[in-house]
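Hello forum,

I keep getting stuck at the same step: I have a sequence, I want structure tokens, and every attempt I make locally crashes halfway through. Rather than fight my setup again tonight, could one of you with a working pipeline run this one for me? It's a single chain of 370 residues.
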Amino acid sequence: MLSWQLFQNLQLSELRLDDVVFECGCDVRWIQLWQQRRVAGLHRQQLQCYSGASRIPLRSMNISLCDLPRITVTHRNVTVVEGANITVACNGSGSPLPEVDWTVGGLHSINTHQSNVDWPSVHSINLTLVNMSREDNGFVLTCIAENVVGMSNASIHLTVQFPPTILKLEEPKRRHDTCMEFTVWGYPVPTLRWIYKGKDLPQGEFVRAEMDVYQDLIEGCLTFANPTHHNNGNYTLVASNSLGTTTRSVYGHFLHAPFDEDESPTPPLSGTHQSDEDTFGVSIAVGLAGFACVLLLVLFVLINKYGRRSKFGMKESRGGRSRLIAPLFFPRLSGGSGEHVPRAEPYWIFHSLNHPARPAGPTPSFPIVL
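Reply #2:
Ran it on my machine without issues. Output:
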């Protein structure tokens, strides 16, 4: 038997059954319904079935007590408070009698099923949810009734109310503007306000709250345009709804103050009191001055000891003797004209300082080099 359940999760563009001849009956009723709905290209195919010994078009098949199941639920929308219990019911009817069940995959609340069958026409099932969780806010419960002809379903939308919780409140971060990011979770959707320095924070062009609301979740930023140190301080977010109020604070630091505005500058002290820095500076100056004086004194002594020279000569020490080297100048004759030109040529006389001076006498002659 070919069942519709084989194809229920497939995205069929076309299902070719031209060469198949079926047995007329409730088992092929779903194919007839698909032809009527123009599903999977079956409406373009000449399908037939055997009715006794004859073949008839599948479109013409007429079968009683064979149709899609009908389904009803006790609620379309259910609103409860977190932690409450609730029971919902689903009734499936039709011929053949359908199987009925709730799909609870992904449901966080504790659940129990109770099935009741009223033959031959009704199959009902009760679903009890215990200690409803806020995680199930917005969950869609679906009841499904199935038989050989097909499937029908009905849904219930769950609304779970709970007090607000501030999931995130972060320190300021620099973006296009400076953002203090926050996330608040609660239903009914909470109202938000900001407290700064014990008062409601005024909002405007330079400080404003920007947010998006997703059912029971609020995400946004407290945005600052060009904040300064005047904006530093504790910021408190207050979230409230009909079930409660919660708060959370964060310190916002934007810039360092150029000076401590709470303290007046210290006046200078009179008298001879000096700070440690001043004393240290004076000590360094005195030390440098003393060092310079000592250095100058040493240089003076060295110059006096080693730097003296005779006006007319130099002392030379050799072999334990000191000799005075003095230059003598003699005239030199120039040219053949016999003119005497007073041009001095130096000759050096070495005189031992360790012997007494020679007695005066005629000056020794020296050759004159022309």
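The two ends are 152 Å apart (CA to CA). If your local run keeps crashing, start a new thread with the error log.
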